[in-house]
């Protein structure tokens, strides 16, 4: 992933509407992994619509700082649910 918040936001803007795999720190040594679609990006946060078959909640939001500090890992997927390289 990019090294600055501006680069992270630009990368996220390029992938709006695309499927992704999200891996986040759930607290107390728990890790949350889920699939969804990047729905919106704002100045400080981005919103992911989660797959309803796997998750009870509909959407989650994280800040770009979460990606920078590696509290959240994002992997974008192609149509066959295979990981795409993010530059």
From TrEMBL:
InterPro entries: Protein_Veg. It comes from the Bacteria. Pfam families: VEG. This is Biofilm formation stimulator Veg. The lineage of its organism: Bacteria, Bacillati, Bacillota, Bacilli, Bacillales. The gene is veg.
């Amino acid at each position: 992933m990019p090294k600055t918040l501006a680069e992270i936001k630009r990368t996220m803007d390029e992938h709006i509407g695309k499927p992704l795999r999200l891996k986040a720190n759930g607290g107390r040594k728990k890790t949350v992994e889920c699939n969804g679609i990047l729905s919106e990006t704002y100045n400080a946060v981005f919103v992911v619509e989660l797959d309803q078959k796997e998750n009870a909640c509909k959407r989650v939001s994280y800040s770009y700082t979460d990606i920078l500090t590696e509290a959240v890992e994002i992997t974008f997927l192609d149509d066959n649910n295979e990981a795409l390289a993010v530059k």
